[in-house]
Design goal:
- The chain is α+β, with helices and mostly antiparallel strands.
- It has two domains: about 120 residues, Immunoglobulin-like (Sandwich), CATH 2.60.40; about 230 residues, Alpha-Beta Complex (Spore Coat Polysaccharide Biosynthesis Protein SpsA, Chain A).
- The protein is built from seven helices and 24 strands.
- One of its GO terms (molecular function) is transferase activity.
- This is Glycosyl transferase family 2.
- Keywords: Transferase.
């Protein structure tokens, strides 16, 4: 299934532009080419569970006063709204209460531009959706130009081993999008996410992935459990233990082993063709499975809960060290890559010297 988002951006004839996060320091002209300086929201949608208009996008940063000065109209009436910027988490959120309706005519009126859109109450929920079903499991990842065979095998692996109910792939402008939709469209939801990925060398100024994760958390995974693993990552764990830990602690983290590129002897390779990993466990860049409702914001490697106090609220990070499943791990396949960052040398061929044979993922693969 395909999903179309409702983005809002600063018009080209308006001089205002978002500036990179100050903590990132100097950013080269080359890196600025992939920086998002104009999108305000990547999507605007209706949350039917709480009758709210929701806008989610990158942090506004210097554009925040421009956004806070807008007017929000819904079905002809002006609505009060809240807008909160989370620069450290690389996301911002707009919320406005709306009356129950099946169709919403929304107008976002800025000082020098007006954005109009028609939103339906519940367009994102297919026949498999049931907000009353506890533990509904959602798998998500951002992807660009990955081989459709890899994506297909990745989906089948997680559905077979972890009972995934829905898969949401945020496609970041793939050249093979039509082939991807034809291959996996019946078993996964493709969200067209054509926003600048961001300068990868800068921590606070890359927005496409963190906003995608939080978009999935707040739009598609509500009432369920979110699995956060990239296309090149396969989780080796026990399903029942995962669900028990998530039920108790609301999140569980996993460490990893890198699976280097040992020549598979053919061009059209996939996960099954790599059987050797490094013995060392990588304790950074952890991934997680989390209760979607219990976690307020997430990033590729962290989760935060919202703590409310008498006069204010703040976000508290769930400390991964205390919530790691030491009996499990995920395999990070360096050869499953488009090599879009050649400087990382993921496709550097190595021998099996010093590596450990690990076929756990092959044994977990569903029968073709």
């Amino acid at each position: 299934m395909k999903y179309k988002v409702n983005p809002v951006s600063i018009p080209n004839n308006v001089a205002l532009r978002r500036q990179p996060h100050p903590k990132d320091g100097v950013i080269s002209e080359e890196q600025l080419q992939s920086f998002d300086d104009k999108f305000i929201f990547y999507d605007v949608f209706i949350d039917p569970d709480v009758n709210e208009l929701v806008g989610i996008g990158p942090p506004a940063l210097n554009v925040k006063p421009y956004v806070e000065g807008m007017k929000v109209w819904v079905n002809g009436r002006q609505r009060k709204f809240s807008f909160v910027d989370y620069p450290e988490h690389k996301v911002s959120l707009l919320k406005a209460r709306v009356p129950h309706a099946e169709r919403y005519e929304v107008v976002l009126e800025f000082s020098d531009a007006t954005h109009e859109m028609t939103l339906l109450r519940d367009p994102s929920r297919g026949s498999s959706w049931s907000s009353a079903a506890p533990g509904r499991k959602v798998l998500t990842a951002i992807s660009k130009n990955n081989a459709v065979e890899w994506v297909d095998e990745w989906i089948d692996f997680y559905k077979a081993n972890y009972g995934i109910d829905d898969v949401f792939i945020y496609d970041n402008g793939s050249d093979n999008l039509e082939a991807l939709e034809a291959r996996v469209g019946a078993k996964a939801n493709i969200v067209r996410w054509n926003f600048p990925f961001g300068p990868t060398a800068k921590r606070f100024s890359s927005f496409a992935q963190p906003v995608a994760l939080n978009h999935c958390l707040k739009r598609f995974a509500k009432g369920g459990v979110l699995f956060n693993f990239d296309i090149d990552e396969l989780l080796v764990a026990d399903h029942d233990r995962i669900m028990q830990v998530v039920s108790r602690h609301k999140v569980v983290y996993f460490e990893s082993h890198n699976v280097p590129y040992v020549s598979p002897g053919k061009r059209d390779y996939s996960f099954r063709d790599f059987r050797y990993r490094y013995p060392e466990r990588k304790k950074t860049a952890r991934k997680f499975v989390c209760d979607a409702d219990a976690n307020f914001l997430i990033s590729p490697h962290n989760t935060w809960v919202k703590k409310n106090y008498l006069l204010a609220s703040r976000l508290k990070r769930n400390k991964p060290d205390a919530l790691v499943d030491t009996e499990s791990y995920f395999l990070h396949f360096l050869g499953i890559t488009t090599n879009w960052q050649p400087g990382l040398n993921k496709l550097k061929e190595v021998t099996t010297d010093g590596l450990m044979k690990d076929e756990s993922h092959i044994r977990m693969m569903p029968v073709s």
